[in-house]
Specification:
74% of the residues lie in helices and 0% in strands. With 145 residues, it is mainly alpha-helical. The chain has a single domain, classed as NusB-like (N-utilizing Substance Protein B Homolog, Chain A). Helix 3 packs across helix 5.
Length: 145
């Protein structure tokens, strides 16, 4: 787990939060993050993948989330929604990143940006998505293969 990738996730959550709240053009938000040096210690390519990948795959991400959340995805707290969307994106599309790393990083993002206790909510939802979407990986871990 690299600190540059962790920082890319942090920046992606912040940028996605801004996009969710304002509906601004993605490229304008990304430009702002670059100009204000928010990506100085981040893996820029990973930030770019997450920040553009979530909106590009929003229907599939929100569909996966909607199976396990207790309300409409749009009604989830915007910070938690941004964290959940990044985590779900990684679970669905970054199969080379171990599911435990994705969940752990998402928990830490929720602790960093979310309300008290939001990390438990994020953990519960992403764990259920991982059980469904990464069953092969979880089974391989249990059998030692």
């Amino acid at each position: 787990m690299s600190i540059a990738r962790t920082n890319a996730r942090k920046a992606a959550v912040q940028a996605l939060y801004q996009w969710q709240m304002t509906g601004q053009n993605l490229n304008l938000i990304e430009q702002q993050f670059l100009e204000e040096d928010w990506l100085k210690d981040a893996q820029k390519s990973y930030f770019n993948e997450l920040f553009h990948g979530v909106p590009t795959n929003l229907d599939a991400i929100d569909q996966a989330l909607s199976e396990f959340v207790d309300r409409a995805v749009d009604m989830i707290d915007p910070v938690e929604r941004a964290v959940l969307r990044v985590g779900t994106y990684e679970l669905l599309y970054r199969l080379n990143t171990p599911y435990r790393v994705v969940i752990n990083e998402s928990i830490n993002l929720a602790k960093c940006f979310g309300a008290d206790g939001s990390h438990k909510y994020v953990n519960g939802i992403l764990d259920k998505i991982a059980q469904q979407k990464r069953a092969f990986e979880i089974k391989a871990k249990k059998t030692g293969g």
